[in-house]
Amino acid sequence: MAETNPVAPSGPAACTHRVTLGVCAGISIYKACDLVRRLQDRRCEVKVVMTAHAARMVAPVTFQALSGHPVITDLFEGSGEPSIAHIELARWEELFLVAPATANILGKLARGIADDFLTTHYLANRGAPVLLVPAMNGSMWRHPAVQENLRILEGRGHVVLQPAKGSLACGDVDEGRLPEPAAVANEAVAILEREGGLQGVKVLVTAGPTREPVDPVRFLSNRSSGKMGYAVAREALQRGAKVTLVSGPTGLEPPSGADFVPVVTAAQMAEAVRARFRECQVLVMCAAVADYRAAQSLASKRKKGKGAWQLDLEPTEDILEGLVPLKGKGQFVCGFAAETEDLKQNALAKLKRKGLDLVAANDVSREGVGFESDRNALSLFWPDGSEERIPEASKTDCARALWDAIQEALNGR
Ligand code: CTP
User: Fold this and answer.
1) Is residue 166 in some structural domain?
2) Are 89 and 213 within one domain?
3) Tens digit of each residue's pLDDT (9 = 90 or more) over 193-237
4) Could you give the strand order of the β-sheet that contains 259-262, starting from the edge strand earlier in sequence?
5) Within this chain, do residues 38 and 85 fall inside the same structural domain, yes or no?
6) pLDDT digits over 268-322, tens only?
7) CA of 335 to the centre of ligand 1 (A)
8) pTM metric for this prediction
9) Last residue of a domain, one of 144, 178, 194
10) Site residues for ligand 1, CB cut-off 6 Å
């Protein structure tokens, strides 16, 4: 264990947050002991749930002494009857944190398998945010099965803390380490403090590309994956907003809890956004709307025997520009700007032309960020010309920083 703090669990009166800590069987379980203390340092009351395998690695009595609460490992604990403790705990908690989260537990949570207390408790969740902190061997972490489960869990709006890189228990130097307990506690408290910041606010988000048909089998589109827009929608949900997500075609799981409106073309997206704009308080227009469509889409497939093919393209409607005359006083509109040069100048010109309150610009020529990537880096430009940087980070983290900035602007109004 990292430190030997005297065992002095903070009483409920001193605590501002209630956290259930789910502990699984990974070598980094020793850090979970310290994590209890770090959470208590941050005024969290902690109740611990362990899997049966975890309880073979560290005795539950250790966590009981640290947390000041009995540790639950078994669905049938106590009377011999199946208890409803998993429901009671779900009513009590404000955050469900799993650290370390093994590949096995990620699979069970993703697929809804409930064969012990921890997994059954997860299904009884009553809307408390879920923070998962995976730790495992690097090859296991990168396995497509694990990555697929993570995508499902993130699609549900859960926060997944990326494992750190370094030496692992197996001797490899790789990614897969449990981040330091203080960093996990910081993340937990940040989630708890953000929670509810957009309570009841109606948010409209657009995401993904649009597709403009050329003939029944071909279309014009762009490289947008939709990941940034989905992360923005998920983060707004996490903060208590009522979210509508208008999305072009992506391979992504719609965030649960959002009102999901799938569209294909720019014209369909324009119609979907216009129909919902008056209702919303905040619009975040992340979609990479196609700027051109075929002047005429062919009714049957163009055969290649016909030789060279010249397409006539016509511009699509600019959705944001079309909203300028409809915009009410209290509404906040954030646009995105995908640029390959003169980032600031182009972004500010778009902000003005489209009547935006904020433009989030990304340099799409940069390797490893933006289109198709899981990472992004943004420059936020405000109407007074000021600029704020969101340095390269996961799209989830960028979405968080973007909402922090939007919330600050809304609070300052
Ligand atoms: N946008 C829109 N309607 C369009 C095209 C873009 O509402 N037909 C929105 C995007 O969702 C984004 C912002 O306008 O929020 C800027 O999009 P971007 O593609 O960066 O710029 P464009 O306006 O298309 O201009 P250009 O392609 O010349 O850079």
Assistant:
1) yes
2) no
3) 888 889 899 999 999 999 999 999 999 999 999 999 999 999 999
4) 259-262, 242-247, 202-207, 282-285, 332-339, 358-363, 375-381, 387-394
5) yes
6) 999 999 999 999 999 999 999 999 999 999 999 999 888 899 999 999 999 999 9
7) 8
8) 0.75
9) 194
10) 266, 285, 287-289, 291, 316, 318-320, 335-338, 350
